[in-house]
Design brief:
The complex is a heterodimer of chains A (79) and B (228). Chain A is mostly helical. Chain A is built from 4 helices and no strands. The termini of chain A are far apart. Chain B is mostly helical and 228 residues long. The chains are: A mainly alpha (79), B mainly alpha (228). At the A-B interface, helix 1, helix 3 and helix 4 of A face helix 3, helix 4, helix 6, helix 7 and helix 8 of B.
Chain lengths: 79, 228
């Protein structure tokens, strides 16, 4: 791991588990020794789950009912 | 009073719930429409959520949902089964949603570069807000701001981010669903995460329960990045 920019560039590779074990160890070592990189990585990693929780939406019952009604009608017409 | 026929139906229903997507697909191919109904039941919520986030409009999302499952029914013969059924379904959903948005001329995407998403300016952060994430999503206004931030992502980044981070597909599944290479998916995902991370950091400052201290705010305003 050359420098802090590598941490930014390789953050997705790390999260996707697509990094060579040696690089992975270097990545983790750098983060443990570099507080700004640790903060960067913690917030980078938390971004997806935070968005997932914030935008979670359940399908309303009326949308489900309308879907079934729509499909029954169209499929019956097809047949 | 539950009849014998009801019990048989319930047992069948329970068995259906245990079937994998692949088994349901095979069963539907043999003409079992109950298998199709189960696939709809299983994926309607996920398809609706994706459509809603891509169209940003409930009525449009409902239409996309209906068109999607009708396409699935009518074009089932074209599904070869090379990829997962879910990838195929997400592809149809995303295409239908993006066509809906384009047909209405609803949005003009600005590039991430124009939105200030320079990868070289993302590194330095004074405060680790990752521990405050739980509290932040409990706040309705904050959650709305986060949703708005996701909506701001240009289309090609947003669809990748939604499938990978919200629907929790694997990178490979996202690539299959969108007909992209895995490296392209990773690049778009990376840029989307960087952009949203930056925006979330700024959003946090507006909420007292997770706010930066005055000192930290001042430091953030005056900070400049070190030269490489």
């Amino acid at each position: 791991m050359k420098n802090c920019k590598d941490i930014v560039d390789l953050a997705t590779e790390y999260l996707e588990n697509s990094m060579e074990p040696t690089f992975r160890e270097e990545f983790e070592k750098h983060i443990s020794l570099c507080p700004p990189c640790e903060v960067f990585f913690n917030t980078y990693r938390a971004t997806g789950p935070l968005c997932r929780k914030a935008i979670a939406r359940k399908i309303p019952h009326e949308v489900q009912s309308a879907l079934w009604q729509f499909l029954e009608q169209r499929i019956n017409n097809d047949e | 009073m539950v009849s014998g026929r009801d019990i048989v139906d319930i047992e069948r229903s329970l068995r259906t719930r245990e079937l994998s997507d692949t088994e349901l697909v095979a069963s539907f191919r043999e003409g079992n429409t109950k298998a199709f109904r189960e696939l709809v039941r299983r994926y309607q919520g996920k398809a609706y959520a994706l459509a809603l986030r891509l169209t940003s409009n409930e009525a449009d999302a409902q239409e996309v949902l209906q068109d999607t499952f009708l396409s699935v029914y009518r074009k089932f013969d074209t599904f070869r089964g090379d990829a997962a059924f879910s990838s195929w379904l997400y592809r149809i959903t995303a295409n239908a949603a993006l066509m809906k948005v384009r047909s209405r001329g609803q949005r003009k995407d600005i590039s991430l570069d124009d939105m200030g998403a320079d990868e070289n300016e993302h590194h330095l952060e004074l405060r680790d807000w990752s521990d405050d994430a739980e509290r932040l999503v409990m706040n309705r206004d904050a959650a709305q701001k986060i949703a708005k931030a996701v909506e701001q992502l240009p289309e090609k980044y947003r669809v990748v981010f939604l499938l990978r981070e919200v629907e929790e597909l694997s990178t490979q599944e996202v690539a299959e669903a969108l007909g992209l290479s895995t490296p392209t998916v990773k690049t778009r995902l990376h840029r989307a995460r960087l952009f949203l991370r930056e925006l979330l950091g700024k959003t946090l400052q507006d909420f007292p329960e997770v706010a930066f201290s005055h000192k930290e705010k001042e430091a953030l305003e005056t900070i400049s990045l070190p030269e490489e």
